[in-house]
């Protein structure tokens, strides 16, 4: 049988594309070698947020007295926290499988290998003993953890996010190599659980491209809670539980019962026959146009494989764009103007659109509207002794081009700013929207 669409990879991009295509009447086959949901659902976004919510509950109970509530000697059961995480993942993967079945997606669990593309564009894929032909191919193979060539690392039993999520024992101390989003979320979780945490970062700030001012505020908050940060430091060796660190020619050693490696991710481009197609590369992934087409018009790529925005919500949007293009519907293409980034620490930090640092580097004039989160009555009521910042960035004509928030629930509020940026709204237009009172979201209107 020849399918209308074949999809390699069952992560957010893959299962979204499969569901959209099949629901629109296209015969669809989906290949996944591990588990539906990909890295995001099985060892990334969802399991980490499940653990972080348990940590947040524990933190809240520990500080219940701030809210005139008595909660003596709170405790947690670490194996049960991990078990709950696994239960949540299992429930959601089952939900995806049910959705695929309902839409009539043919699911093939196994390693797919592209065998070639015929003169008429038909793509042949092998899996096990079977071969499958398709008129269109969507590559959604995702990304994998970057393993840098650090001396001693290959002989050490270190953690990546996968092992950290599977551990049923809480380490007394942890050295995290990398202070990006993944590193900081695990730092937040283990710090709440009582682990001594050290974060080593090569850059001079945590959270890479996120707003510097807010990143530094979050770092200061976690430093108060006991996390030790080593910025502008290079890891020169990992030997068992010892991590050698160097800065300005001076070397010292950090000890951790466990070492967690989180220096980034890279697209998966090998192991599925991509080389048979000779598509044009981009960075360490595949080049695509605004419709997610590669250099071959009936071969699409979505998600981390594009090496552009390694985020699950970006992958979902890209998959929707690709399927619409295959169906001949819509011509808007993919927009990257307002892709939100969120770090689910406690407090959360989120950003969308331009940062001050980007605009300064470009030499582009801008206006900043900034206000403490404490200007929201709801925030004060729910965050005793806590604070944060709402920072909005406007172009000279007062079009909203960036937004950055520190404080709970930044992950939910950033959507408001993202819509304003995507639609090119000016400050007065967003200010004219009626926000319910009291809500933390009002802070956006207050800032304007």
3D architecture notes:
This protein has 448 residues and is α/β, with parallel strands linked by helices. It is built from 13 helices and 23 strands. The protein has helices at residues 12-23, 38-43, 45-62, 78-103, 161-166, 181-192, 212-224, 312-327, 356-362, 377-382, 410-422, 427-431, 442-447, and strands at 2-8, 28-32, 106-109, 113-117, 123-127, 130-139, 143-145, 173-177, 196-201, 228-231, 234-239, 242-247, 250-255, 258-261, 265-267, 281-282, 285-286, 299-301, 341-343, 349-353, 367-372, 389-394, 400-406. The strands form 6 sheets. Strands 1, 2, 3, 4, 5, 6 and 18 form a 7-stranded mixed sheet that branches. Helix 1 (12-23) runs parallel beside helix 4, helix 3 runs antiparallel to helix 4 (78-103) and helix 3 runs parallel beside helix 6. The protein is globular. The N and C termini lie far apart (58 Å). The model has no long low-confidence stretch (mean pLDDT 97).
């Amino acid at each position: 049988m020849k399918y209308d669409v074949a999809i390699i990879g069952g992560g957010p991009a893959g299962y979204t594309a499969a569901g959209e295509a099949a629901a629109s009447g296209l015969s669809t086959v989906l290949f996944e070698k591990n588990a539906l949901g990909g890295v995001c659902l099985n060892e990334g976004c969802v399991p980490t947020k499940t653990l972080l919510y348990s940590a947040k509950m524990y933190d809240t109970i520990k500080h219940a007295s701030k809210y005139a509530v008595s909660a003596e000697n709170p405790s947690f059961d670490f194996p049960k926290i991990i078990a709950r995480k696994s239960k949540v993942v299992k429930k959601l993967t089952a939900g995806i499988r049910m959705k695929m079945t309902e839409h009539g997606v043919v699911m093939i669990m196994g390693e797919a290998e592209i065998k070639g593309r015929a003169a008429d564009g038909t793509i042949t894929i092998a899996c096990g003993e079977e071969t499958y032909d398709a008129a269109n191919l969507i590559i959604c193979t995702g990304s994998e953890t970057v393993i840098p060539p650090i001396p001693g690392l290959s002989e050490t039993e270190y953690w990546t996010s996968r092992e950290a999520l599977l551990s049923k024992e809480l380490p007394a101390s942890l050295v995290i190599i990398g202070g990006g989003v993944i590193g900081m979320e695990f730092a937040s979780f283990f710090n709440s659980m009582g682990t001594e945490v050290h974060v080593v970062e090569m850059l001079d700030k945590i959270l890479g491209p996120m707003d510097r001012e807010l990143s530094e505020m979050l770092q200061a908050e976690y430093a108060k809670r006991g996390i030790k940060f080593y910025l502008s430091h290079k890891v020169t060796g990992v030997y068992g539980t010892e991590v050698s660190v160097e800065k300005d020619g001076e070397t010292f050693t950090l000890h951790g019962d466990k070492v967690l490696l989180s220096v980034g991710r890279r697209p998966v481009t090998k192991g599925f026959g991509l080389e048979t197609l000779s598509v044009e590369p981009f960075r360490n992934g595949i080049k695509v146009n605004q419709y997610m087409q590669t250099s071959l018009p009936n071969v699409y790529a979505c998600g981390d494989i594009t090496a552009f925005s390694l985020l699950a919500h970006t992958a979902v949007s890209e998959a929707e764009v690709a399927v619409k293009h295959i169906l001949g519907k819509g011509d808007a293409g993919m927009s990257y103007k307002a892709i939100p980034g969120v770090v689910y620490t406690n407090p959360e930090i989120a950003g969308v659109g331009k940062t001050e640092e980007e605009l300064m580097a470009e030499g582009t004039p801008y206006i900043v509207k900034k206000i403490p989160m404490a200007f929201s009555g709801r925030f004060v009521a729910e965050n005793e002794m806590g604070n944060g910042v709402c920072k909005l960035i406007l172009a000279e004509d007062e079009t909203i081009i960036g937004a950055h928030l520190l404080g709970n629930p930044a992950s939910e509020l950033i959507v408001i700013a993202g819509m304003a940026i995507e639609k090119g709204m000016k400050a007065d237009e967003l200010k004219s929207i009626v926000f319910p009172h009291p809500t933390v979201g009002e802070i956006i209107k207050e800032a304007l």
